[in-house]
């Protein structure tokens, strides 16, 4: 009886993974190899289960790789992928530059105020993501709060053009995803034994050398986790570039949405999603394998 419940406990996560990830992935993959048609659903061929296995094989034989060729040959999608990678990478680095000092300060703060600091980091999650992005529109637009304040104190004479630019997209991504960077770094730094830093200083290391040789290295797992948590959703972000970046900001999330809902080209949109998933998954798998080999080598 105990082994039965043990198998259920182990198998349940895999079951949910299959239902919530593998099955939707297979559906999207199947649409990617289809052709667009003026029908509902807007792709063909459709599986005719009434004809049994022969009908299934016949439908599979009608699959095409044209959508993948089209996406790779069209410069729009290539530029969208490259632009998304660039914006996500820069946003991740900016988030790290802001999040690491915040996490370090929280980890070094007195124990009595750490729960308050954690609550302040998590507090934005209590508000709708969409409302928070809309709030930045009121701050960044030409007649918004930031320009009114800067003009009132005499720093600028004309409004700054930040809204509907990539700068606004960077601000929105950094603001919305900052907690995802701070929390894993804080969790790593909080468990660190700071006597190592004191020992390094006693042995002649400067404060900067001790930080880079001890604190930064011990915090590396949290930094990598935070970078992945920011970079992966940022590369496919749609809401922030659509609301803050305007029509001139090219990102793959906006392109994918346009193919689905404006052009109603589900096969091309599914192809774009599959390629994006490959771009994200392959480096992560390679990194995990390298980490596993490095761990085995150190044993």
From TrEMBL:
It is a multi-pass membrane protein. Residues 81-287 form the ABC transmembrane type-1 domain. It comes from the Bacteria. It is found in: Cell membrane. Pfam families: BPD_transp_1 (PF00528). CDD domains: TM_PBP2 (cd06261). Belongs to the binding-protein-dependent transport system permease family. CysTW subfamily. This is ABC transporter permease subunit. It comes from Ahrensia kielensis.
């Amino acid at each position: 009886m105990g082994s039965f419940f043990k198998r259920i406990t182990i198998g349940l996560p895999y079951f949910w993974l299959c239902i919530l990830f593998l099955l939707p992935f297979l559906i999207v993959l199947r649409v990617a190899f289809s052709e667009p048609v003026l029908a509902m659903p807007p792709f063909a061929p459709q599986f005719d289960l009434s004809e049994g296995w022969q009908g299934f094989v016949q439908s599979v034989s009608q699959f095409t790789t044209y959508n993948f060729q089209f996406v790779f040959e069209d410069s729009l999608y290539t530029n969208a992928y490259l632009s998304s990678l660039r914006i996500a990478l820069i946003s991740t680095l900016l988030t790290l530059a802001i999040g690491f000092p915040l996490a370090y300060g929280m980890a070094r703060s007195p124990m009595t105020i750490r729960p308050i600091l954690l609550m302040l980091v998590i507090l934005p999650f209590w508000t709708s993501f969409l409302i928070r992005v809309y709030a930045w529109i009121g701050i960044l637009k030409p007649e918004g709060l930031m320009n009114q304040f800067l003009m009132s104190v005499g720093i600028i004479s004309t409004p700054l053009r930040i809204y509907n630019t990539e700068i606004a997209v960077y601000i929105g991504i950094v603001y919305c995803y900052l907690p995802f960077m701070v929390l894993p770094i804080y969790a790593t730094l909080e468990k660190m034994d700071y006597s190592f830093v004191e020992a390094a200083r006693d042995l002649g290391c400067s404060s900067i050398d001790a930080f880079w040789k001890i604190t930064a290295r011990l915090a590396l797992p949290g930094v990598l986790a935070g970078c992945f948590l920011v970079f992966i959703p940022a590369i496919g972000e749609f809401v922030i570039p659509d609301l803050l970046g305007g029509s001139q900001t090219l990102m793959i999330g906006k392109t994918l949405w346009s193919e689905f809902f404006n052009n109603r080209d589900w096969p091309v949109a599914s192809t774009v999603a599959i390629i994006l998933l490959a771009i994200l998954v392959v480096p992560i798998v390679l990194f995990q394998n390298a980490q596993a080999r490095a761990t085995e080598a150190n044993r």
